[in-house]
Write a structure and sequence with these properties.
275 residues; mainly beta; 23-stranded mixed beta sheet; 0% helix; globular
Length: 275
């Protein structure tokens, strides 16, 4: 196995090609960075992809295993901007399969994080529990994505964007994300949002649904107000009543925290559930 030591504390490990499958491995790790905020940009073409938190004193650690015949690895860190880029791109003229690459990233809760993920045909699991995230963007192309916030985000998140083409995105305990604004764009895919968790302030959710489906499950102690424009879309809103051109929950005025939803649907499906 060949090892390359880079300046700044990053370690890269590349294994030799295997004769039949051309599999290679790339490992990177940094414990100290010159900037407090780390911008993580992931572009993973195919295979599997995960992010998980760690209490170790590392800023980031990543392991990529990929088929070199189909994919090219992406890795760079810019000390001036604090931007980390990771992932894979398809080689020109190749036809990569869904199992062409596996990328696992571990992030430390040191400083703050801005995360931007685009997963093409990569099955994605993002455990963002307890990570100090100021902004998050997740785009899913043709494979399912699961995001979880099992504990509160220790910093306020300015924006959270979820986009899907022909896949599904499921988010667990989104109330822990501590997000000011949530934006959802669903093409023909499906998005499910579980808004449980520790609410610290009001949140605004804007959604655009074409042929897809959006389900939002809101805790009963959170007030809900929905404004929606539809063409021939379905709208399920059990527990909400129409008032002043919007649909509101019974506790809208008295709830300690409120969720304002603005949704545009064409031929899709919008469902608001109270839990």
């Amino acid at each position: 196995m060949r090892r390359l030591y880079l300046l700044g504390g990053a370690l890269l490990v590349a294994s030799p090609q295997l004769s039949a499958q051309s599999w290679q491995t790339l490992s990177v790790e940094r414990a100290k960075l010159p900037r407090a905020e780390l911008s993580v940009v992931v572009r993973h073409h195919a295979g599997k992809f995960s992010i998980k938190p760690t209490r170790d004193s590392v800023r980031y650690r990543a392991m990529l295993r990929y088929d070199a015949r189909a994919l090219e690895p992406i890795y760079s860190y810019d000390a001036d901007s604090g931007a980390l880029r990771l992932g894979t791109r398809q080689r020109q003229g190749s036809s990569s399969g869904r199992r062409s690459g596996n990328l696992d990233i571990t992030l430390g809760a040191i400083g703050t994080l801005a995360i931007d993920v685009q997963a093409g045909a990569a099955e994605t699991q993002l455990d963002l529990t307890g990570l100090p995230i100021t902004s998050l963007s997740v785009s899913s192309g043709a494979s399912d994505t699961r995001v979880r916030f099992d504990g509160p985000n220790p910093v306020r998140m300015k924006s959270l964007t979820l986009s899907t083409g022909a896949a599904s995105i499921m988010v667990d305990r989104l109330g822990n994300a501590n997000a000011d604004e949530i934006v959802v764009r669903a093409g023909v895919g499906e998005v499910e949002l579980d808004m449980a968790g520790t609410w610290l302030h009001d949140t605004e959710l804007r959604a655009e649904v074409a042929l897809g489906a959006l389900t939002i499950r809101v805790p009963s102690d959170v007030g809900v107000r929905v404004e929606t424009s539809r063409v021939i879309a379905s709208f399920s809103h059990e527990g909400l009543s129409e008032k002043g051109g919007a649909y509101v929950s019974d506790n809208w005025e008295s709830a300690p925290h409120k969720l304002r939803i603005y949704a545009q649907t064409v031929v899709g499906f919008l469902s608001i559930e109270r839990r």
